[in-house]
Write a structure and sequence with these properties.
Oligomer: single chain
Largest sheet: 4 strands, mixed
Structural class: alpha/beta
CATH class of the largest domain: Mainly Alpha
Number of domains: 2
Strand content: 15-25%
Shape: globular
Number of helices: 10
CATH topology of the largest domain: Four Helix Bundle (Hemerythrin (Met), subunit A)
CATH superfamily of the largest domain: CRISPR-associated endonuclease Cas1, C-terminal domain
Length: 341
Amino acid sequence: MPVQGGLSLRRRLVLASYGVFLGVKGERLVVRKKGEILREVPIFEVSQVLIDTKGATLSSAAMRLMLKHGVELLILKGGKLMGKLSPARRGANIHLRMTQYSIRNSERGLDLARAFIMGKLRNQSDLLKSLAKNREGGERRRIREAARQIDSLMWSLNEVKGSPEVLRGRIMGIEAEAGRVYWSAIASILPEDLGFRVRKQRFDRPEDPFNVVLNYLYTVLMSEAWFALESTGLEPYLGFLHVPNNRRPALAVDFMEEFRQPVVDRAALSLAKDMGNFLEEGKLKPEARKKALKAYEERMNALVTFRGRRHKIRRHLRLQAERLASAVMGRLAYEPFRVKW
């Protein structure tokens, strides 16, 4: 399909079928299976290649072509990000990273921690208000009351004070309380046969398809946040809210908070009526993964207005990463991303 120029407006190439091979032909990526060409895409139309099968192979020529053109490579297994490939020295900015380290426990760093959750709660409330518009009676009142409670919790973030670690703990406590309210409201509108009662992360081993889809797409969103931060020169592993951890990019987890609801949660809700046969032995079937990724792409490509600029959400994510880098350097106050209802 035709695409506009600019890396953030290109499309993702997904390899999810067993036995596929990714090679090149000139300046094009070519996907083959048993010698048959399944797809042939100009490299300038691709922003990311996502491998979600253990049966795919890549040529070194394909990897070199991707690196040359700044195309990201992600490898997933069971909904977990196993690894990635990005160009050497991409986004290197030593001064920015040194500043990021130095302000983590400063007022500026703590304001960023607060802003990430402020954005998350605002988008949770806005999504519930949007859902309430299409409902009537008691159900409408319950959803709007949940949104009101989250609004109250959001404003209470401004009153949180204390030492850096105490403040972070209180912010995350407010986030957890808002999450209970939010997911209880979401559970009340989902089909009963999905079995969604509470939000469960991947390590909780959820058995309902809604939680599994959420976990899968949050992994994809986190990977996009990771690449966006790296492209600005920020250190993805040093978060302002979440504790730095060698096993996960804490800043990417911080940064993605404000994009969860307008991207992943809306994508999952759009699929809810069709999720009855998504799972096999607790995992997403290949066809279910394709549907989930399609819904995710539709959300990422949705045009929304933020800060007076109308772009696809994926473009806004990249711009937010640049604004975050500027906020770290003290050049502006960080405003969380919002999709108004």
